[in-house]
């Protein structure tokens, strides 16, 4: 069937016929006027809910290139509409309405991604409605809409009531749905929670037996793999040391490891999850939507990456929709479309925003950003670096993201603040001082990137209030001032002794920055001769002698004042000052202990916050998001 506007109109007409048939049957049954009025009102309300949604779909379909999965979903909804039986009780039509409404609601929700043909990953902040969105897609009666929940009870119950009545068709219609909401219901029957896993395995083994019997009866020479065969094939690629034999009497698989049989319930949670996922994906109808909430649950990264790679490869006809917040899982997906669930208000109000990775913002970073409810603070280094350890404690009201380099901090901060997608998120950056000039600092400030008043984060750990805080936790209070004085004198002496080394370090950093910023413009270098000339001009443009002169003056000025803090701010001696002074005169492992003190001391965090960023000169951190847009333009 070609799914087009005509198909949707048939669905709309069907819903209107429900009302007409109900009224005819209500008249035929002679309902009393009061009862008839109340029941008719409920019927109208329900059919209106579905009709309004279908009519909106009709109005929006013209010229749209729908994905095969969405077309299949529309077909399924239409084909599964119950026959409007004549001469039945009006209650029959009333019983149809909840399913019709839920199906229309699910079509409406999925319509926002109806043109997307790639597999999809949906990310979102906690509380954004990501899992609620998945739950909304359940119980629709559409057998080509498969929902695999995050919460699941993976227990096989041989004595489950009417277990042997199940087959592949009935399982698809009744059990590929979320049980997330079941966990939230008081008094829920255990049978209902264990039912999906039990019936999944039963249906697969019964289907194997059915196919084997049919092929034997028909004397089929080239036996086709059964659904269970396909499950085992993928399972073996993920967990090769566990085999299965089939119990034809009890209709269940029996795991075998090292020639020893054991119960299916003795598999680990991760192993049962893998079996559950493989079975459901293999059993899904052609061109199904397969919706998976938290697909990494119970699994380690190696297992879930191999598993989903194999399942996607096995079902290229289906469209997978993953709802996840695990960065490693998302980063490992290939050829996917990333959507940000900004909000979902059941049953149909959803704000899904497509987020495209680009040269400025890699996909792994985007994933972290959309999961954050706070403003973003980019810093240099990695998660195990001192930069991150300090900033994440001092700026605990921010989402602090280490992004390796100075250039990345600048690029990502600008990209977020100029992004139409992240229009409700503000980004800031902090970079090391690295001998930047006042003009360079002001330029960075103008794009919300702020410069540490020290050349390196390690020098901040040797500032007076950090050293004093550490001493207060380890030294007799009568000795603190004297010990602090000894440390300061030793640090000043070492920085003075290493003056030439510091000048060299700062000059080299400045020259490196200049070289990194030197670009050859095509309009100025149109051939090899002009290219050579452009390159030859770079050393002269850098003006190394002027840099040496400026750096020397800055270092000399800082040391002439005999100021401990000024000396720290120009120092580049992070290794020497720790190994020769802090670790010897204060305590071994000083740097990490200082970071640990920052983590637990609110006073120290406040002092450092004021030292790193002067909030009186950073209006964007105090203003509303709307006002701060001026700051970023």
TrEMBL record:
Membrane-spanning intervals of the chain = none
| Residue span(s) of domain ATPase AAA-type core | 257-325
Citing just one GO molecular function, the answer is: ATP binding
Q: Where is the DUF4435 domain?
A: 376-553
- For this entry, the protein name equals ATPase AAA-type core domain-containing protein
Q: What organism is this sequence from? A: Lacticaseibacillus saniviri JCM 17471 = DSM 24301
């Amino acid at each position: 069937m070609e799914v087009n506007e005509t198909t949707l109109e048939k669905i709309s007409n069907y819903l209107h016929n429900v009302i007409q048939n109900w009224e005819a049957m209500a008249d035929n049954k002679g309902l009393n006027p009061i009862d008839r009025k109340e029941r008719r009102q409920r019927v109208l309300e329900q059919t209106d809910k579905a009709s309004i949604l279908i009519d909106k779909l009709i109005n929006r379909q013209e010229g749209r290139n729908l994905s095969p999965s969405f077309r299949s979903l529309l077909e399924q909804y239409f084909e599964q509409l119950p026959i409007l039986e004549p001469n039945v009780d009006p209650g029959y039509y009333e019983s149809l309405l909840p399913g019709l409404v839920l199906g229309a609601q699910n079509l409406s929700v999925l319509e926002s991604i109806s043109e997307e043909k790639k597999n999809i990953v949906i990310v979102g902040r906690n509380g954004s409605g990501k899992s609620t969105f998945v739950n909304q897609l359940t119980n629709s009666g559409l057998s080509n809409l498969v929902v695999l929940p995050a919460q699941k009870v993976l227990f096989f119950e041989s004595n489950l009531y009417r277990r042997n009545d199940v087959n592949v068709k009935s399982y698809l219609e009744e059990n590929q749905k979320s049980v997330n909401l079941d966990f939230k219901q008081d008094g829920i029957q255990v049978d209902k929670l264990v039912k999906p896993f039990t019936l999944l395995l039963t249906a697969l083994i019964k289907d194997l037996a059915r196919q084997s019997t049919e092929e034997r009866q028909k004397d089929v020479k080239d036996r086709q793999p059964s659904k269970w065969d396909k499950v085992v094939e993928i399972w073996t690629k993920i967990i090769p040391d566990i085999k299965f034999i089939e119990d034809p009497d009890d209709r269940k698989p029996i795991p075998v490891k090292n020639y020893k049989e054991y119960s299916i319930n003795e598999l680990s949670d991760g192993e049962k999850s893998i079996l559950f996922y493989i079975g459901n994906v293999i059993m899904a109808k052609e061109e199904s939507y397969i919706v998976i909430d938290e697909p990494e649950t119970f699994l380690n990264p190696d297992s879930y990456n191999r598993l989903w790679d194999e399942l996607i490869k096995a079902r290229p006809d289906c469209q997978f929709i993953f709802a996840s917040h695990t960065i490693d899982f998302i980063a490992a997906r290939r050829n996917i479309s990333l959507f940000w669930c900004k909000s979902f208000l059941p049953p149909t109000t959803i704000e899904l925003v497509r987020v495209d990775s680009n040269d400025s913002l890699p996909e792994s970073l985007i994933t972290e950003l959309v999961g954050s409810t706070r403003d973003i603070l980019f810093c240099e280094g990695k998660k195990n670096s001192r930069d991150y350890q300090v900033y994440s404690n001092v700026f605990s009201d921010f989402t602090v993201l280490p992004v390796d380099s100075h250039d990345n901090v600048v690029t990502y901060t600008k990209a977020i603040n100029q992004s139409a997608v992240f229009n409700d998120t503000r980004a800031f950056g902090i970079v090391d001082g690295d001998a930047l000039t006042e003009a360079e600092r002001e330029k960075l400030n103008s794009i919300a990137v702020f410069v540490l008043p020290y050349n390196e984060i390690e020098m901040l750990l040797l500032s007076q209030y950090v050293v004093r805080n550490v001493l207060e936790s380890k030294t007799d209070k009568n000795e603190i001032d004297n010990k602090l004085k000894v440390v300061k004198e030793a640090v000043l002496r070492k920085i003075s002794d290493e003056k030439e080394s510091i000048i060299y370090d700062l000059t080299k950093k400045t020259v490196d920055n200049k070289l990194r910023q030197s670009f050859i413009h095509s309009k100025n270098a149109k051939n090899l001769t002009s290219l050579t000339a452009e390159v030859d001009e770079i050393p002269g443009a850098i003006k190394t002698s002027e840099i040496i002169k400026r750096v020397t003056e800055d270092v000399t000025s800082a040391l002439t004042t005999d100021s401990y803090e000024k000396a720290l701010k120009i120092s580049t001696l992070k290794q020497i000052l720790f190994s020769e002074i802090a670790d010897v005169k204060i305590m071994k492992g000083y740097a990490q202990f200082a970071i640990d003190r920052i983590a637990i001391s609110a006073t120290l965090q406040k002092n450092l916050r004021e030292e790193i960023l002067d909030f009186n000169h950073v209006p964007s951190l105090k203003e509303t998001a709307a006002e701060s847009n001026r700051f970023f333009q």
